[in-house]
What does this fold into?
Amino acid sequence: MKIENMISENRADCTGCEACSNACPKNCITMRRDDEGFAYPKIHHEICIQCGKCDATCPALNFQSTMPDKLPEVFVAIHPDEKIRRHSSSGGMFTALSEIILRDGGIIFGAGFNENWQVVHTSAENFDELENLRGSKYVQSEIGEVYRRVKVELEKDRKVLFSGTPCHCAGLKNFLGKDYPNLLTVDVICHGTPSPMLWEKYLDYLAQGHEIARVNFRSKRFGWANNHLEINFYDCGFYAQANFQDNFVNQFLNGIIERPSCHECKFKFPNGKSDVTIGDAWGVQNFAPNMFDNRGTSLVILHTDKGKDFFRQTEMVTQQISFDIVMQTNPMFLTSSIPDDRRQKFFDDVKNFPNVPIAVMKKYFFESPQQISTSGRNFQLEVVEKYVAILQHLAARREKNFLLITSTLNGDLFGAIQKNFLNGDEEIGVYVLHSQVGDRIEFFDCLHPNLSYTVMPSVENLLKTFKDFHITEIFIDRQLPMDEGSKNFLANCGLPIRTFELKAEENL
Ligand SMILES: Cc1cc2nc3c(=O)[nH]c(=O)nc-3n(C[C@H](O)[C@H](O)[C@H](O)COP(=O)(O)OP(=O)(O)OC[C@H]3O[C@@H](n4cnc5c(N)ncnc54)[C@H](O)[C@@H]3O)c2cc1C
Ligand code: SF4
Ligand code: SF4
Ligand code: SF4
It folds into this structure.
């Protein structure tokens, strides 16, 4: 059979992995979106030389079920660096594996955002670039020519980590056609991937022309288990909505907007092709309570000796669990998501009303306009203006580094700070203290041109941080609730403290 016949007989066979287009020696396969917004291969027959490489490479067309000799080893794991864990969707396992490869001069491939916030496979060669690959993006990632790039790097004897969905890993393995000792493949437990076209339209709707600073499908602002879609805007606050209440993510989790192949996925266990599978250790509080703190715990499934070897080199805090627990707590490792009965009707409506997909999304959803209007960006516009006024005042005095301590829910502030302070000024740092947890004080974001990372120091380390970064004064939102320990700490830290205040009714 040929891939074109396979797709016309059952569209759901094609995962969109792009192995065929990467394999074509004449570059005569382009990926074209259908009415649902998913890409399928289109062969340009006028250039095709009928070499058959596309058919021979397709993992769906050449699918063979496998059965491992023994069950994989399974662990729950936590990255020891709190900042990395905060920026990761689960426990930071992806970063821990990447760190080993990067330290050895290797290269990481995975799903990131491009400049238009579309999800595409790209590479990272250092720790800064890795940030874009971190975090789950609930949209099908476009591979482009990445399999070819992976091969080039492998042939140079460079260490390579390739990460993606199980169908991406299967696509890469078929494209390469042989094992490479210097390649580590990591796939995610995969619920499925939603339509890129719908994501683009949805994001346009949410942004309403405002420039986007950051998108996080798995914001842990309200805890790992209560994850939110959070979108920050440079000039206009943020949108944050619990994943089950957000139009797009809820429709994804309910099986309306995923690719057809995701409902008949061939690459669930035991048919994945990766060395390591990573996911969320949902329910960890029940089976390994000491590994739960609601900041994210990874589930790690080790399929090969290579995977085990890399896993043991990481600095993750780990605990082994039995394979049975995965079967009980994470069905997506083994089975496909079930499509919603209304899926076909939904996409028929999208086809009939192509300019108003958001209206269609709302029609098939239980979202109410009130929820949107009180869920972040619109609600906080006035408050943002107040903060911007304060920040502009502080910016005028820019001769010192200072620590700004403000309330939670400050995605609005993030955008305002970026706009007012981070215009390439190498000298001034603004450090935003977000909240305190027990006897620790937690920096939500440490915004400095040279230090774009989040730190969560102990009180002792905080004093050292003040010293290291020459922080000379502190500004505090007077209405921020603080425990006695934090108040005492600030009173005795030795730095001058100034307060600012929003009007009571505008307090967040
Ligand atoms: C579409 C999707 C569905 C998922 N469904 C489940 C699920 O049902 N159950 C579960 O336990 N876990 C699921 N996960 C995995 C989980 O959300 C985390 O990605 C995983 O646990 C890794 O987290 P981390 O903390 O190790 O690192 P992170 O830094 O969060 O990991 C990011 C990794 O995810 C990859 N990635 C991100 N977005 C995509 C994408 N669109 N396509 C391909 N690769 C991508 C990156 O390349 C990188 O390897 C899903 C992930 C994705 C992307
Ligand atoms: S048969 Fe060969 S040339 Fe034609 S599309 Fe397939 S890979 Fe390309
Ligand atoms: S190689 Fe991938 S994209 Fe190409 S036909 Fe097969 S499944 Fe579809
Ligand atoms: S569910 Fe299966 S087909 Fe869909 S993106 Fe994940 S691995 Fe690919």
User: Anything to note?
Assistant: Residues 381-396 form the longest helix (16 residues). The chain is about 35% helix and 20% strand. Residues 3, 14-20, 41, 58, 60-61, 171 surround iron/sulfur cluster (ligand 3) (CB under 6 Å).
